[in-house]
Specification:
With 288 residues, the chain is α+β, with helices and mostly antiparallel strands. The chain has a single domain, classed as Arylamine N-acetyltransferase fold (2-Layer Sandwich), CATH 3.30.2140. The protein is built from 8 helices and 13 strands. An 8-stranded antiparallel beta sheet has the order 5-4-3-2-9-8-7-6, covered by helices on one side. It has a 5-stranded antiparallel beta sheet with strand order 1-10-11-12-13. A hairpin with a 2-residue loop joins strand 3 and strand 4. Helix 4 crosses helix 5. The radius of gyration is 18 Å and the shape is globular. The relative contact order is 0.14.
Length: 288
């Protein structure tokens, strides 16, 4: 067991997480403690290793369980990714086990839609360290943060990948991805707390609702140090530091190879076959 951990009995289930297995999954080798160095290191390791993916929803699975045991089995032990709710359940348990103080909040995604008033389907964490608060979001995907950003007005994170936070007149914080082609608004949020029971309602919407963006087309996303990949349907977007994004249409074989080859996702044989049938069906229906 890494240093600096505690056994907890909170709603975030830190006592139930296999911390060593998680750290091995994301390739994090340093000791852990409830400090900023660990927070930054875990964030970067997680987003590089674990992809955002909605394969279970796309292949028609009737449930995407959010209990910690199921999430660990899927993401940690079986080499899958997950959508934001699964990843937040896992990450909250890890941070709780290490001893961080944090809360969860919901955000309204703006990227691609530009809609400021859509449903608040994305979930992230607000971590408190000393007198500061940090936006910790490992599950937004290819456009998201690679490390935490200070949760304050006019906060900025610079480097190969640059972000800032702005505050709108009505009170919402907005996270923006700063790119050569301009600032892209990712999501707007307040820090009103959300709880695991709220996650179940959002999970049901994402899986079953006709207007869910996640149950009718393949969405895979991954952030790595020098390239970010986003696959929506069969359109692959590649984003590199300081360069405009590039887009490429994948054929059926490339789309089916992408989970493993580009996004580091391990699919069981049955799931791979279900995805093959789904991708072929979407292509045949002209929706792929």
């Amino acid at each position: 067991m890494k240093d600096g951990t505690r056994v907890t009995d909170s709603m975030w289930q830190g006592s139930g997480v296999d911390l060593d297995a998680y750290l091995s999954r994301v390739g994090y080798q340093a000791d852990v403690a409830p400090n900023l160095a660990t927070l930054r290191g875990l964030h970067a390791a997680h987003v590089e290793a674990i992809a955002f993916e909605n394969i279970d929803a796309v292949i028609g699975r009737k449930a995407v369980p959010l209990d910690l045991d199921s999430v660990q089995e899927k993401i940690v032990r079986n080499g899958r990714g997950g959508w934001c709710l699964e990843q937040v359940v896992l990450m909250a348990a890890v941070l709780d086990r290490i001893g961080f103080t944090f809360s969860a909040f919901a955000a309204r995604t703006r990227i691609r839609t530009g809609n400021k008033f859509g449903p608040a389907l994305h979930v992230a964490l607000c971590v408190e360290l000393d007198t500061e608060r940090w936006l910790f979001d490992v599950s937004f995907g290819g456009y998201g943060l690679h490390e935490p950003i200070l949760l304050a007005e006019s906060s900025r994170l610079d480097g190969d990948w640059s972000f800032d936070l702005v505050r709108e007149p009505h009170g919402e914080h907005v996270l923006r991805f700063l790119r050569p082609e301009g600032a892209a608004e990712l999501f707007g949020f307040t820090t009103d707390p959300r709880y695991p029971a709220d996650f179940e309602l959002l999970n049901h919407f994402c899986l079953t609702h006709p207007r869910s963006p996640f149950n009718h087309r393949l969405i895979l996303q991954r952030t790595q140090p020098k390239v970010r990949h986003v696959l929506i349907g069969n359109t692959l977007t590649e984003i590199r530091p300081g360069e405009p994004a590039t887009f490429r249409e994948l054929d059926e074989a490339e789309t089916l190879a992408a989970p493993a080859e580009i996004f580091g996702i391990t699919l069981a044989p049955g799931d791979a076959e279900s995805l093959r049938k789904t991708v072929a069906g979407l292509a045949g229906a002209g929706r792929h």
